[in-house]
Protein: Ribosomal-protein-serine acetyltransferase
Organism: Deinococcus malanensis
Amino acid sequence: MTVPELLDVPAVITTERLILRCPAPGDGQAWSEAVQASLPELRPWMEWAHQTPLDAQKYEVAARRAQADFLQRRDLVFLITDRHSGAVLGSCGIHRIHWALPKGDIGYFLDSRHVGRGLVTEAVAALTALALGPLAFQRIEIRCDVRNERSSAVARRLGYALEGTLRHDRRWADDPARLSDTLLFAQVRRDSFCI
């Protein structure tokens, strides 16, 4: 049986243009700024984007909790940072991990000032390779609102199979009186995955 805490999970992943790294104390200000710059784009999809305050203190707490969860392998959150400048561009992670299978799902957001350059695709490719490679996940998923074309495009570009539409699976984040559908994409370990 897998003992998650004993797994060697890299706290830093380097790609062509990015460094994905586990949040650490002191990251709250930069993480908050990336979120603040992106709120209009996040609010249609993310319930947490409607919470207040979304300030540096909240994200400082989030960074410290993310580090603790990472060490205990409950949730693997990474900040997406520019490989050259070190600037925080967003975050991504492997969430809702079920180690008995194992499986999980990938979530992501990018500072709206940096979209359109393939950075999220690059980050998600790295997490997919981590999950299906060294972590030996049998399954990795991406779920997104059926209306979120940018998010679903990332899954499609990386060869995730659309397994279905979960009808009336959630409420609209920006209009809780309305129900929305969720697209469920997945890759399984036997799928061929190439970066």
Q: What stands out?
A: The chain has five helices and eight strands. Helices lie at 28-36, 39-42, 56-71, 119-132, 149-157. The radius of gyration is 16 Å.
